[in-house]
Design goal:
Elements: H1 3-36, H2 40-55, E1 61-67, E2 72-76, E3 80-81, E4 88-92, H3 100-103, E5 112-121, E6 124-132, H4 146-154, H5 170-176, E7 183-188, H6 194-208, H7 211-215, E8 217-220, H8 224-230, H9 233-236, E9 243-245, E10 256-258, H10 262-269, H11 272-282, E11 292-296, E12 299-303, H12 305-317, H13 322-346, H14 368-376, H15 383-386, H16 395-407, H17 409-418, H18 424-432, E13 438-439, H19 443-453, E14 463-466, H20 474-481, E15 489-493, H21 507-515, E16 519-524, E17 526-527, H22 532-537, H23 539-545, E18 553-554, E19 563-566, H24 570-580, E20 586-589, H25 592-601, E21 614-617, H26 619-622, E22 627-633, H27 635-639, H28 644-652, E23 655-663, E24 675-676
Parallel strand pairs: 2-4, 7-15, 7-16, 8-9, 8-14, 10-13, 14-15, 17-18, 19-23, 19-24, 20-21, 20-22, 22-23
Antiparallel strand pairs: 1-2, 1-5, 3-4, 5-6, 11-12
Length: 684
């Protein structure tokens, strides 16, 4: 390092140290506010602020813009301001003035003379990388900040996704700052940064749309391993208020104890099941076709078929869920019974000879049966005091009579037989003919039934992010849309990686019924993670199954070509590779039926944590993850799956450095061009 460079580093260190001193002051103040909070709500607000300030500690300041007008703008994870005015000490990366840090080029400098990237370790400045964007540099091609980018994507994995706030590319920044008010679909192949772009977009939207903080943001991932993997990105960007979940997590009262075969899961995911569920609920209301006699406290009451139809019509007109409409139905039935019982109590019907036929007397006085019925309704009647013809029941009496009828066991039983109370579990169990446990594919059906029945409360959000969105079934999309009334969404996926028959083959097909034209497609075309050698190894696989797909172009090469090795005992070969593995994170990706065997032989967990140095996973659990090295076991078995070509594509593109294939039978044609590994050559 030259004297000039040392002076520059020293100057930046002084400035960065001042930023950290300012941050420390804010953290002390937040802690004091927590301690002095007079109510729980205020305390929670300041605890959240303290957590946010703690989260931006690492890499607080990472860049500087020198502008043509002489200003210097420091860029970081959050905004910091002087105590006495609005002057920014540090500009939040999401602020408009910071955009040029990611988009300015020599050909279009956007008022930027120099872009400086500041590398820190802890609170210490360890390096500077300057790009001069003056007129003399105009016309230069290629990625801006290429050295910093390649250093970032080549570094060893940690088992947790890192944010890319210091190395965002123009293509990524454009999507992050997209102001589309509906759903933005981000389609991109392996290594294009779909997930991390979506998470940065969440952070940007929370910064620019304050109402989202109150309405909330939901991030949906394919499994808990994936959610753990991405869990540090948003906190590192200063955002701690986002909810992360899988689709089953949105219906938390049911445990998953079964796995459906792919064809069964696909059938349950078809949107036509929504009408099947609705029909199942409607079928539970069975209106009598003959009169129903009810005995209430010695009074014989009859409900005709027309009475039941009238009550059901009123209930259905209310447009309420089944169990809520049931209350309307019962109200109407009881109202009918109340009217008839009141008429019986009020009226004295005489025979041809002048005798009372209703238990009363010819002069209108009530008999024993009348008095008993009134008592059941809570009406106190003393014939010595209250005797004589008159209207006996006022409105208070009629309310008491309705309450008594509603509480009567026989009346309730007859109403329940016509319009029973339902549970979502009961509806779906009858629909699928099974009640011995639930699968993940049952969850959207249960949620659909819960809406129709009127069971449970559902949290809704102002914005929803769906990752690995190609895996969601049509029924899962219905479930998700109910959590997002505004239809503000960021949807990321790759149709070439769809691993389930229930998943998407077209964005228009799954989104059109819910979003109409309120969605737009954005493409990511540059592969930052997967080296060119590995992407080249997938060329025949893609050509065979996705001939129209143009894979993303890789920005780097490692010089290490993938290899294949045939082995009668793949477990032994993998064990040797694991034993020799010393550098970075290694994933063994195998067919689901072989995962337990491999995990047992290698003494690895069946529920891995991404930070483990070695993990064993099936392809569907590896989606969205990345590792330094990957060994794919039994590719021929993976290919034999329903969408096995997509699963193999996923498995092969998880590696950032090295890829190996271990096969027991003949190598599949789509992998035949991979070089054969000599069993005695060094492993990973």
């Amino acid at each position: 390092m030259s004297d000039t460079e040392r002076e520059e580093v020293s100057a930046e260190q002084e400035y960065v140290s001042g930023l950290y001193a300012h941050l420390d002051g804010l953290r002390v103040e937040a802690a004091r506010r927590v301690e002095k909070a007079e109510d729980a709500e205020t305390g929670a607000v300041w605890r959240a602020e303290a957590a946010r300030l703690a989260a931006v500690e690492d890499g607080l300041c990472f860049g500087r813009l020198d502008l043509d007008d002489g200003r210097r703008v420091y860029i970081g994870r959050t905004g910091l301001f002087r105590d006495d005015d609005e002057e920014a000490l540090l500009v939040d990366w999401r602020a408009p003035v910071a955009r040029a840090f990611y988009t300015a080029t020599a050909g279009a400098p956007d008022g930027v003379r120099r872009r400086r990237r500041i590398a820190t370790r802890g609170r210490v400045v360890v390096g500077l990388d300057d790009e001069l964007l003056d007129a003399e540099a105009a016309g230069q091609a290629g990625l801006t900040g290429e050295a910093a980018l390649l250093a970032a994507v080549s570094v060893a994995r940690t088992g947790r996704m890192r944010d890319i706030v210091t190395t965002l590319r123009t293509e990524q920044d454009r999507i992050i700052r997209d102001e589309h008010g509906g759903a933005l679909v981000v389609q991109g192949g392996p290594g294009t940064g779909k997930t991390v772009v979506a998470l940065h977009r969440v952070a940007y939207l929370l910064y620019t749309r304050e109402h989202l903080r109150a309405r909330g943001v939901l991030v949906i991932g394919p499994n808990q391993v994936f959610l753990d993997y991405i869990g540090q990105v948003l906190p590192g960007l200063g955002e701690n208020s986002v909810v992360t979940a899988t689709i089953p997590d949105l219906y938390p009262d049911v445990g998953i104890t079964r796995v459906d075969p792919p064809d069964v899961a696909a059938g349950k995911g078809d949107a036509y099941l929504a009408e099947r569920v609705a029909a199942e609920v409607r079928a539970r209301v069975v209106l009598p076709e003959t009169p129903v006699d009810i005995d209430f406290e010695g009074q014989a009451l009859t409900l005709e078929p027309v009475d039941w139809r009238h009550a059901a019509t009123k209930a259905r007109a209310a447009s309420m869920p089944h169990n809520h409409a049931r209350m309307v139905f019962q109200h109407e039935v009881v109202a009918t019974l109340t009217g008839r019982l009141a008429d019986l109590m009020e009226a004295v019907v005489l025979s041809d000879t002048g005798e009372a036929l209703d238990g009363g007397s010819a002069d209108g006085r009530l008999g024993a049966a009348d008095i008993k019925a009134l008592a059941a309704a809570g009406v106190v009647f003393d014939p010595e005091v209250d005797g004589g013809p008159r209207t006996l029941l006022d409105e208070v009496d009629r309310v008491a009579l309705r309450d008594s009828l509603l509480a009567d066991a026989e009346v309730q039983a007859e109403m329940d037989a016509v319009w029973p109370e339902l549970s979502p579990e009961g509806v779906v169990a009858d629909l699928i003919g099974r009640s011995d446990g639930w699968s993940a594919a049952d969850i959207p059906l249960l949620d659909e039934a819960a809406v129709l029945v009127g069971s449970g409360q559902r949290a809704t959000y102002g914005h929803v992010v769906v990752d690995e969105a190609q895996e969601l079934s049509e029924m899962a999309w219905r479930m998700l849309m109910r959590r997002d009334p505004s239809r503000s969404m960021t949807i990321v996926g790759d149709l070439a990686q769809t691993g389930t028959p229930a998943g998407a083959s077209s964005w228009a097909r799954v989104l059109g019924p819910h979003l109409a034209d309120r969605w737009r497609l954005a493409q990511l075309t540059v592969n930052y993670r997967t080296p060119a050698e590995i992407m080249d190894a997938t060329a025949d696989l893609l050509a065979a199954h996705h001939p129209d797909l143009r894979p993303p172009g890789s920005v780097r090469s490692t010089g290490v070509p993938p290899w294949r090795q045939r082995a009668a005992d793949p477990v032994q070969v993998v064990a040797e590779l694991v034993a020799a593995h010393t550098d970075g994170h290694l994933a063994i990706i195998a067919p689901a039926g072989r995962v337990e065997e491999l995990a047992s032989a290698l003494s690895l967990s069946l529920s891995p944590d991404p930070i483990d140095p070695v993990v064993v996973l099936p392809p569907d659990q590896a989606k969205g993850l990345e590792f330094d090295a990957v060994v794919v076991v039994d590719p021929e078995v993976i290919l034999a799956g329903v969408l096995g070509h997509n699963d193999l594509y996923v498995a092969m593109t998880r590696a950032t450095q090295r890829l190996g294939i271990v096969h027991t039978g003949p190598i599949p044609d789509v992998l035949a061009r991979l070089r054969e590994r000599n069993p005695v050559e060094p492993g990973f």
